[in-house]
Each structure stands twice: as structure tokens, then as C-alpha cells.
Amino acid sequence: MTTPKTLWLIGCGNMAGAMLRRWIAAGAVQGADVFVLNRSDRDLPEGVRQGRALPDGALPDAVMLGVKPQQLDGIAEQIAARIAGVPMLVSILAGVEEAALATRFNAGATIRAMPNLPVEIGKGVVALHSDSADDPARAGAQALMAPLGLVEWVDVARFDAVTALAGSGPAFVYRFIDALAEAGAAVGIPADQALRLALATVEGGALLAAQSPDTPAALADKVASPGGSTRKGLDVLDADAALVRLLTATLEASERHNAEMAAAARG
Q1: What pTM was computed for the model?
Q2: In terms of Cα–Cα distance, which of 86, 94, 67 is closest to 12?
């Protein structure tokens, strides 16, 4: 299978819309080769067609499910017969397992994908898993997702955990930036300036961490001179592994809910 060029998107909310805008900006697909099935018209990239029913004619190279997980059964009733035999079905429905998709849709290959919001600027993460895809289909999915950022194939047993880390992770990072800015305001920095400083600090720190041969832990030690003020701040975060324990609990909560949605989708 070559890289999919014709796509039908079933739903085009925040995440699917971010993926679509990046694909078109990167030249991976052309607007005229995309159709979006949605309940109401959205502001979509130029050339993209949209409507309340799938178009007549040949099937596309790939169909991507981008609706809410709880809408799965309704969407299956609406489109399963029409897309039967599509070469590739991609699902970005959190918590919905491949087996649950296979009972509702007939596709040459079914691939679970979990992107995160920075895919819109080509700096996202896309986790992929499939038991049904052969090597050409996997290569096609990999190529389709490549313009979105880092693409990682993930074992099914770890998919919910990876969803919590990478899929939900940007929200946790955004909350950290907010908290850093609020803390800056709490120690006397004007709130708008504290937010600008927090944003620039996280942006620069992340870019350096991504490019440096050093681990983030080693970089933190480079910033923190022995006995210095940075070390005193790190002592608070490191005490009893407070930050690690907080983030572990955060990921566990997200992972549990993914498992709950998977159970619901099994029926």
C-alpha cells in the first residue's frame, strides 16, 4: 500500500482538524482529495468538501474516524455499509480497541492512532497500533502520519498508557505553564509578564532538551549549581519524589478512563 492520498474524515473536531490542516500544509494530501462527514459545516482548508452524507463513487484510500468514542455505534450504523472494503480504517477514538472496530467495520487494515494537539505544527506525537495491518499497510500509515511529528508503534498493552502520556500530555504541560505563571505572579511579577516569561522559558527549555545529547535530568543539574537558588527550588520538587508521584497519579487517572471507555465500546 502506498501513502493514502484520498481521505474521508468522519468528524472533524479539534484533533482531526489539526491533523487535516497539517497534512494539507505539508502537501501530504490535497484539499480536493478530502471529504469530511460532519453534522454541520466547519471552517475547513480550501478545497475540502463536506456534507452530511458520504459521497457516491469509489472508496478513498483511507477513512479516519474522528468522532467522540460514545458516538461509535451511531456512526457505525450510518456508514459501515458504505465504507465496507476500504483499504485502511484509522481510528483516533480514545479507548476504542481494534477488536471493537473490527466488529463494526470491514476494512483491509484497521489502525488505531493517538495523536496530540501539536500535530497541527508538525511537532506532535502519533502513537500507532494494529494487529490486522500487513507491512505495506503499516508503511502507508507511517508515511501518512510522518508530517505530523514523532510516530511510534506501540504494543497494545501499553496503548492506554501512551495515550495518557502523549495524547493527554500537552494538556498537562499547558497546566504546568499556567501554574508556573501563577506562581510567578504570587511572588510579585505582573501576571501578564509572568505568563510571557513562563511560556518562553518552557518553549526554550523544551527545544534545548529535544536537541541536546544530555538527558533532561542532566540538563536540570547543569542549571542548578550546588548550593544555588535553582537547587533550592529543585529540592522542593524532588522531596519524596513529589513531582513524579503527582504526574504518575495524573497518568494513572487518564489511563483508567481509557480502559473504562474500551470496556464500554466492547458492549
Answers
A1: 0.90
A2: 67
